[in-house]
Fold this sequence. Notes:
Radius of gyration: 14 Å
Order of helices and strands: HEEEEEEEE
Amino acid sequence: PKVIRKVSLSSAFAQFSDHWSPRVAGEVNDMHIKLAKIQGDFIWHHHETEDELFLVTKGTLRMKIRDPAQEGKERVEVVREGEFIVIPAKVEHCPTCEDECEIILLEPKSTLNTGNLKDSDRTVKELGKINPV
């Protein structure tokens, strides 16, 4: 049987300091709940089959999007603490923030952080895990 446990977000985020390296904090069905600290610009990418949810718990995320509803025109959504954004599959996006931001990602277990760019220097193929506290 699965172990039922609560997770303290402040304690979980305190377990790591590196940016752009998501950690698995939990699982729901075939989804991972990942925690990440980010700062600066990531890379433009998309996911062929996976939607992604970005929930900001600290800081302000600027999500650059090449919006297919606007013929690929680039726009920016500002996602503040306590807000989230869902990026549908196949939509090119580039997360960015000036100051450090802490985010929760909810995405299928198959999701690679760099999506279609499988061999980027930012690709994390082996995800670390958060120790329950």
